[in-house]
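Limitations

Structures in this collection are predictions, not experimental determinations, and the ligand pose is part of the prediction. Treat each record accordingly. The example that follows, with 4-nitrophenyl beta-D-glucopyranoside as the small molecule, is included so readers can see exactly what is and is not provided: the inputs are given verbatim, and the output is the predicted complex.
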Amino acid sequence: MAAVTQTQKFSKQFLWGFATAAFQIEGSTNTDGRGPSIWDAFSREPGRTLDGRDGDVATDSYRLWKEDVKLLKEYGVRAYRFSLSWSRLIPLGGRDDPVNEQGIAFYNSFIDALLEAGITPFVTLYHWDLPQALHDRYNGWLNKDESVKDYTRYAQLCFSRFGDRVKHWLTINEPWCVAILGYGRGVFAPGRSSDRNRNAEGDSSREPWIVAHHVILAHAHAVKAYREEFKATQGGEIGITLNGDWAMPYDESPDNVAAAQHALDFAIGWYADPVYLGFYPPYMKEVLGDRLPEYSAEEWAIVKGSSDFYGMNTYTTNLIKAGGKDEFQGNTQYTFTRPDGTQLGTHAHSPWLQSYPDGFRALLNYLYKKYQKPIYVTENGFSVKDESFKSVSEAIKDTDRVDYFKGVTNALKAAVFEDGVDVRSYFGWSLLDNFEWADGYETRFGVTYVDYETQKRYPKDSARYLTKVGF
Ligand code: PNW
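Predicted complex:
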C-alpha cells in the first residue's frame, strides 16, 4: 500500500459524521403519543438482553437531544445519521392509522437544529423498530401485501413532512439482521426461530428468506414513491443500507476460495444482487431451492435499480473455510484465526468483531466493481473490550478504537485516492454508547461515553481522533 500524501483531500461535499438509531438512544418509549415497537416488548422479556435491561431510557436522547446536537457541533461533523421511530410517527403503524403530530414536531425541531448548526441530516426510515401493532395485526414482515403497503405509506409521510429539508434517505437498515437475527436465530425482535428453547414460534428454514423478500419489496416501493412523487420537487437521493463484512479465503485451496464468495453471496448478494442487478445469487438458489421466494416480472421491475447508491455498513473481516451446516452463512465457516494460529486483528468486546483495515479497502473495491454505484459508508466502528468495566477516566482513553479508526480511515483514503472508488460519506458508529440490542448496555460502540446513572456524556479520544482526520 503506497503512502497517501497530505495534498489528497476529500471533496467539500464528503459527508463525515456519526450514526445512531432511534430505539438505541431515544428512550421515552411511552411519551407524547409514541406507540410500542417490537423492540419494546422483546427487550423487556427476561433473558433477551445480556444485562437484562431494556430500551425505555437508553441515552434519554428524546429529552436530551439538544445535548446531542451540541456534541455533534463540538466534534465538527458535516453530517449526522439517525433513524425515525415509525411508532412515534404512526403509533399503530398502519396506512389508515392516525399520525402523531407530536412525533412529527419532535423530528422537525431536531432536523431544524441540525441544519442551523450546518449539519446535514442523513435519515434512516427503518432501523428495526417495527410498530408492535403491525406484528400483532398481521405478523409484520411475514405478510407481504400489508407490510409493503404500510411501510410505503409511512415512508411517504416522512418524505412529505421532512423531505423539504432531508435530502439523504435510507429506506432499511441492515435487512440481513432483521431476517437472520429476528426470524432465523431468534435473538433479535420479534424473536422467532425453530429453536423452541429460545422462541415459542417461528421457522428458521423458511421465515428469514420470506421476510427478506418482503423487506426488499417494501424498500423498492418506498423508493418508487419517492422518485415518482417527491424527487422532482425535493431533489434528494434514496437507497438501502446493507451490513456486510469482507470475506477472505482461509487459505489458497480452491474450496476455500469458492467458499469466500459463497459467504459474500449469502451476506451481501442476497440483497445487493436483487436491488442492483435484478436477480438473487445463483448460489443461494442452489442451496435453498424453492425456499428462496421469487418475484413476479412486475415486482422485479420495481426491485431492480431501486437504490441510488450503495449504503455500506461494515465492521470486520472474516476468514472463510468451506463446509459446515450454517445455512445463514451459506454453509461456510467463519474464523479469525489464521492457519498459522495468529489472530486477524485486535479483539473487540463483540465476539464477531476484530480490526482488519485491509479488508475495509478490499470490500470497498469489491462493491464498487460489482455494483457500480457511489458508496456511502453509513456505519463503521468498534466496541473496546471490557469498556463497561472501566472507570470513566479509563474508558475515554479508548486506544483500541482510535487504532481501529486510524486503520480504517487510511484504508478509506487508499480506496478513494489510489483505487478510484467513489465514496461519498463516512459515518462512525456511534455518536454515543447506547442500547446495543441483545447485548444491552454492556457493549459500548460510542465515541462518547455515556454514564447511564447520570446520563452525562464524556467525549472519548476516538471522537477527537476522527475530528482531526480532516475529511
Ligand atoms: C449494526 N452481527 O448491527 C447496527 O446497524 C447497529 O444498530 C448496531 O448497534 C451496530 O451494528 C453494532 O453492532 C449489527 O452480529 C449487529 O454481525 C450484529 C451484527 C452486525 C451488525
